[in-house]
Amino acid sequence: MTYDEAMAYLGSLTNYEHTRDPDAMRAVTLERMRRLCRRVGDPQRRFRSVLVAGTNGKGSVCAMLYSMLREGGLRVGLYTSPHLEHVRERIRVWERGTGHASRTHGDDWIHEAEVAVLVERLRPELEALRAESPDEGPTYFEAVTAVALMYFSERQVEIAVIEVGLGGRLDATNVVEQAVSVIGPISEDHTEILGREPAAIAREKAGIIKPGQTVISAPQRDEVLDVLQSACHEQGVPLFVVGRDVTVAVQRHSLDGLECSLTGVRGAYESVTIPLLGRHQGQNAALAVGAMEALADTGVPYGLVERGLSHVEWPGRIEVVHDVPLIIMDGAHNPEAADALVGALTELCPNRTMHLLVGMSKDKSPEELGRRVGRLAASAICTRSRHPRALDPVPLAGRLWPYCPDVHVMPDAVDALTYLLNVVSAQDVIVVTGSLFLVGELRSAIRQAHLRPRRQPILHSIS
Fold this sequence. Notes:
It is a single chain. By secondary structure, the chain is α/β, with parallel strands linked by helices. It folds into 2 domains: about 5-310, Mur-like, catalytic domain (UDP-N-acetylmuramoyl-L-alanine:D-glutamate ligase, 3-Layer(aba) Sandwich), CATH 3.40.1190; about 320-460, Protein-Tyrosine Phosphatase, Chain A. The protein has helices spanning about 5-10, 20-25, 30-40, 60-70, 110-130, 140-155, 190-195, 200-205, 220-235, 280-295, 300-310, 335-350, 365-375, 395-400, 415-425, 435-445; strands at about 50-55, 75-80, 90-95, 160-165, 180-185, 215, 240, 245-255, 255-265, 270-275, 320, 325-330, 355-360, 375-385, 405-410, 430-435, 460. A 7-stranded mixed sheet has the order 3-2-4-1-5-6-7, sandwiched between helices. β9 (about 255-265) and β10 (about 270-275) form a beta hairpin. The longest helix is centred in the N-terminal third of the chain and has 21 residues, at about 110-130. The protein is globular. Residues about 450-460 have low confidence and may be disordered.
């Protein structure tokens, strides 16, 4: 099997990232993933793991943990979703002795040949499960998760940092017997699948909590914290909460990132720099440091935390990708993420004219984004990514129009960004937001210099 054949086969599986089906998604049980893992030798039992759930910030916490663990000289794995530019970026392994100076883009991603080998090995097991229940065959996410677990086992990683895909209790990643569970802020998202009440959503997230582990949580509203505390009590495990047991103070916030001081359960870490934007990243750093302390028996050296956080990379989240004019990309797709973006823009770009480039998925709310971000913008261009769930830019523009004074449509995202680069002033700010899929495509276009020469595009006004 070649890599292209492997990807074609994975693409033939039911993929709820492309087409949402809430009823079918609620019907997926964890037992099928457990059976799949048993068929390939339960690879998830051959390494320690940290499992990270929550509504927002999961990926940032994972990236911080991954960065700190590799500073500790460990062979560490990372599994996240979705991807920005390439599916291989979901599955990463960092080898001992690999220095930062020698790093290149994608050098820790799973190789194409390894994807092909693992999918070829996995395919008979997937087909056997499909034959047993033709209407309930394994999904794309289950298959990719299995590939990640097999890869980590074969590469003999010592610890893997794993991001929950959606929810927690029934998510395919919940087959691991993690040493630490991290739960980021819990709010209303994917409500058609997880429930509409915060407590109901919290119960789904708390489904990752198991005996014999430590749980680290972000600050939560009272009803959510009650659910988490109850789940920890039932499993007989400790719960540490940021703001109560682990604290963070942001000392400086600039376009270069944050400088923070953190106090954990076992140590204090003063004046740590984090090259990520948004004060909320301080809270994510506290979660990651708390998880590191829970993994360690004798405490975490200050230098490991300092170096790890200073080298963290997590693109597409309030990320500066161009300086003049300033281009900031952020995949904010729900109200809480939009609030974080607004906070960062207000603090870091005061008195600068802003132009939005917006694309969103069909299941997200343009109105929620518009209420928050629209007031900051002088103009907005609505576009779309190539993702199957992308919302058509014409109705998107119609729904954003009440919140922004000047709204236009340009269906081609690269054309839209090129247009903005040609018409805004050097002091202006271009904000690409609304969808990680849009951010991934445009980030790739900038990185690969695929922006097109100046030409007059067709610009449709909304009035």
